[in-house]
Amino acid sequence: MDPYHRFLEEYVKEAIVNSNGTNSGIAEYLWAKKGPGRFSSYRDEKTKALTEARRVFDEYRHWPLFVILSHIGIEDKEAFLKKEK
Prior knowledge:
Layout: H1 3-18, H2 23-32, H3 43-59, H4 65-71, H5 77-84
């Protein structure tokens, strides 16, 4: 898996675990999350992944979580959600 998709999955997993689990809660958590620092590894990929996660959860807030996960390219949604609980 390329770094961009790995970071995208990490941000979404972290947001699901640390929010109330609703799409609006996930979006709020992502917007409160600080972006990568100036000297971090894979800074561009991390920034792009965080921006994309924020955009998707803002635009598609009314969609079911499984649909959003599928839209951003997370294949096995059940396993993805089980790992975090």
